[in-house]
Amino acid sequence: MGLESALPHDSVLTTNLNRVVNWARRSSVWPMPFATACCGIELMATACSRFDLARFGAEVMRFSPRQADLMIVAGRVSVKTLPVLQRVYEQMAEPKWVISMGACASTGGVFDTYAVVQGIDQFLPVDVYVPGCPPRPEMLIEGIMAIQRIIDADNIPRDPTGKRLSLNIALTPNYEPRSQPRPITIGAT
Ligand code: SF4
Asked: For 73, 83, 103, 117, which has the most beta carbons within 10 A of its beta carbon?
């Protein structure tokens, strides 16, 4: 869907124009933050000067779904909130992508209760899963770079009826988790 759908297929012009369109899209991803819990704080941290999401052209957080093309679900989603999440996703412009940030969004995390959705991928086509509780800002940036690679590869899979399929890319952690619990030192050393 979009500009490229109006072009003739299999021509050199189409191929080159597609490349330019994809380059423009991957360089100006506009996220729609759906932050419901602690992961949202890490999401905010990615935009600060230390991590500087602007380096990837993706710092323009839009709270208007019609102006956004990347949904970042950061935090647990309750069953009551789910219809809102789905509506916001449906209002976003095509083509659009979804990142599931953190254990809660991807699996329900530690909230194994009837009130919390046990993985948003049951209801939304998730493209990239970012691991962690919470994921560090670098990990989220890794997820956004994965989305950029998907856009570069012109990879928007659809089924024969034209329905958007999810890409289901699970990132591996880019850090070594330390063993828990940590030894505690009390008093001056
Ligand atoms: S994954 Fe961890 S940090 Fe993120 S919302 Fe759940 S409990 Fe909070």
From this structure: 73
